[in-house]
From TrEMBL:
This is Methionine--tRNA ligase. Residues 518-557 are annotated as: Disordered. Its main location: cytoplasm. It catalyses: tRNA(Met) + L-methionine + ATP = L-methionyl-tRNA(Met) + AMP + diphosphate. A motif ('KMSKS' region) lies at residues 300-304. It is found in: Cytoplasm. Keywords: Aminoacyl-tRNA synthetase, ATP-binding, Cytoplasm, Ligase, Nucleotide-binding, Protein biosynthesis, RNA-binding, tRNA-binding. Zn(2+) binds at C129, C146, C149. Is required not only for elongation of protein synthesis but also for the initiation of all mRNA translation through initiator tRNA(fMet) aminoacylation. Pfam families: tRNA-synt_1g, tRNA_bind. Residues 569-669 form the TRNA-binding domain. The keyword Oxidoreductase does not apply.
Length: 669
């Protein structure tokens, strides 16, 4: 973005009377991710968010409560500040438009423009919506209702002060045409240009008489008026640089690199704010990016529908990092998205629990089992040189793909392609899983001659996790820290990444790992919202009267020929393919394994008596066949939702698998 080493990113300042919802969280999390990423890259970052605390709604709410408007704002402001703390937002400053320094700076800019005759007094007649605090023209209003909120409007005629915005129309059109990155994404840029090129830009009313609105910043040149929202709220981007740092920093950080806004306030920023800056002879921000809206289960969020998503609740139920991840992974940034708790649960299970979470668990388990819980030492030939290229191409491929990761992520973050960046990181975790499966370390561990190769595989998997933690940090800071801690590392993610930090080989042999609990507890999607899965069912829980579902290799009771069944009876059995996502041993059992399998449209937990034949790690990624329509049963207190097909008399000799690649959930005939 900016050629300077600084990076100044802002969110809109949110209206204090609002209850924080998913839209507020979305913008602020996106800004936080960019701020964290730029800090990792060594940029001097200033990240600003805050509150807009003036206006008619605040005045009316305070009057209804019988308290002073300032007291009202002081009571409400913490709901945003507490949410940002909960969501791990790393803003450098939090501005409130009721701050005394902000007020004086706004008045200074107003006086400057008034002295230049760029603010003048005039009369105005229009339809006013109190809820939106906005005037509408006759053509905008239908049936006496606000076109935005559909509430009744009232006709008002009054004298006000106006900013000569219209005289900057041609200059702004030219600026947008010659600065491709100024308004983004492209459809929003075209939208603003269309607006400016198809109608005459009028002057902007920037005041309200105190007789109608007293809760605002008094105009320095007329004590009977207060400034209206735009000349108060938008100036925060400049005023914060004057008083929120130890010394004034306008020259250091302005122009802003990025204003992140919702698409509903794009015109406010791209037109109103831009022309204000032109009038003040100040540079325009590098980029104004307008993101889309979130609907809920296909419907617009509204208090009347009762479907406003509370980010506090989502963070409490699903975890802060999974919530942050979902918002940026689910839809391309800039487009509208649909939120559902079922979708959030699926994303947690598929991307996080089955992805990076499973990779960490299985890697550290094998290091504990085969390397005494320390990062193994690896001979140079197994990772570098011509011999490695010939003998261990997968090791070399894993290393090279991670070396190229940083440059690719730079491009994606510069382009606001959060979902593609996260998909790339998830694919690298998946590649590491595949790499483990191909090398089969559980087999290497049985051959002393293959010990160096085993160490190379386990080292490579752990090193992959270390590097992924560095790049996951901006989106999931707490998760990155947990990965590092379980790898036995003490990484300070707040300092810039050095070249030797992200280079392959940074993980030191002999480091003691500290395997901990699962990074991402699984969640079960259900119509009433997902709930954490309890995988530690106890034997005291009652079991349904259903057949045991371990494997389909029971020991015959007698050598007599099995009874014949009719085809209709056999057709009642549903056999389906299932892909093994995770596997682990059942405590206190030599025989039982607990599997998590995918049937395409759903995931299931199955307990199978195949533990003497198979190591859990060897099953991950395999496509097996299960009986899919058995009633759930419990083995050692753990529910099993199906039966694995296996061959053998008494002892399991092999699983029934599929030779060709088929989708999970395919019927077996």
């Amino acid at each position: 973005m900016s050629a300077k080493n600084t990076f100044y990113v802002t969110t809109p300042i949110y209206y204090v009377n609002d209850v924080p919802h998913i839209g507020h969280a979305y913008t602020t999390i996106a800004a936080d991710v960019l701020a964290r990423y730029r800090r990792l890259k060594g940029r001097d970052v200033f990240f600003l968010t805050g509150l807009d605390e003036h206006g008619q709604k605040v005045q009316q709410a305070a009057a209804k409560a019988g308290i002073d408007p300032q007291v009202h704002c002081d009571k409400l402001a913490p709901q945003f500040q507490d949410l940002w703390t909960r969501l791990n937002i790393s803003n450098d400053a939090f501005i409130r438009t009721t701050d005394a320094p902000h007020k004086s700076i706004v008045q200074r800019y107003l006086q400057e423009l008034f002295d230049k005759d760029l603010i003048y007094k005039g009369s105005y007649t229009g339809w006013y919506c109190t809820f939106d605090e906005r005037f509408w023209t006759e053509k905008d209003v239908e049936n006496g209702l606000c076109p935005d909120c559909k509430r009744p409007v009232e006709q008002i005629s009054e004298h006000n002060y106006f900013f000569r915005m219209g005289q900057y129309q041609d200059r702004l059109i030219d600026y947008i045409r010659t600065h491709d990155r100024f308004v983004r994404p492209e459809p929003r840029r075209n939208e603003v240009l269309g607006f400016l090129q198809t109608q005459k830009l009028g002057d902007l009313s920037i005041s309200r008489p105190k007789s109608r609105l007293s809760w605002g910043i008094e105009l320095p040149f007329d004590a009977q008026y207060v400034t209206y929202v735009w000349f108060d709220a938008l100036v925060n981007y400049l005023s914060a640089l004057e008083y929120k740092l130890p010394s004034p920093a306008v020259a250091r950080y302005w122009p802003a690199d990025l204003h992140l806004v919702g698409k509903d306030i794009l015109t406010t920023h791209a037109v109103y704010w831009s022309t204000m800056l032109m009038a003040l002879n100040l540079p325009l921000p590098q980029t104004i990016f307008a993101h889309g809206w979130w609907t809920v289960d296909g419907e617009k969020m509204s208090k009347s529908r009762g479907n406003v998503v509370d980010p506090n609740k989502m963070a409490a139920v699903y975890g802060v990092d999974p919530f942050r991840y979902f918002l940026l992974r689910e839809v391309p940034f800039g487009q509208d998205g649909d939120f559902s708790e079922q979708g959030l649960a699926r994303r947690i299970n598929s991307d996080l629990a089955n992805g990076i979470g499973n990779l960490l668990s299985r890697t550290l388990t094998m290091i504990e089992r085969n390397c005494a819980g320390t990062i193994p030492d690896v001979p140079h030939d197994y990772l570098d040189g011509e011999e490695a290229q010939k003998q261990y191409p997968l090791l070399v491929q894993a290393r090279e793909s991670l070396r190229a990761l940083g440059d690719r992520l730079d491009v994606l973050f510069d382009g606001f392609e959060f979902n593609t960046a996260l998909l790339l990181l998830a694919s690298r975790a998946s590649d590491a899983d595949t790499f483990i499966d191909k090398h089969e370390p559980w087999k290497l561990a049985k051959d002393p001659v293959k010990r160096p190769e085993l160490h190379a595989v386990l080292y490579s998997a752990a090193e992959c996790l270390r590097i992924l933690s560095l790049y996951l940090y901006p989106v999931m800071p707490a998760t990155a820290q947990k990965i590092a801690e379980q790898l036995g590392l003490n990484i300070d993610f707040t300092v810039p990444l050095l070249r030797n930090t992200i280079e392959w080989g940074g993980l030191q042999a002999g480091t003691k790992i500290h395997k901990g609990p699962a990074l991402f507890p699984r969640v079960e999607p259900n119509p009433e919202g997902a709930k954490p899965v309890n995988d530690s069912a106890t034997p005291s829980q009652s079991a349904p009267t259903a057949p045991t579902s371990a494997t389909a290799a029971p020991t015959p009771a007698a050598p007599a020929a099995p009874a014949q069944i009719a085809i209709d009876e056999f057709m009642k059995i549903q056999l389906k393919t299932a892909k093994v996502l995770a596997a682990e041993r059942v405590p206190k059992s030599e025989k039982l394994l607990k599997l998590r399998v995918s049937l395409g449209t759903e995931e299931r937990q199955i307990v199978a008596g195949i533990g003497k034949k198979y190591d859990p790690e060897s099953l991950i990624g395999k496509t097996i066949v299960i009986v899919a329509n058995l009633k759930p049963a419990k083995l050692m207190g753990i529910e099993s939702q199906g039966m694995v097909l296996a061959a053998g008399d008494g002892e399991v000799r092999g699983l029934v698998t599929i030779l060709e690649e088929v989708e999970p959930g395919t019927k077996v005939k």
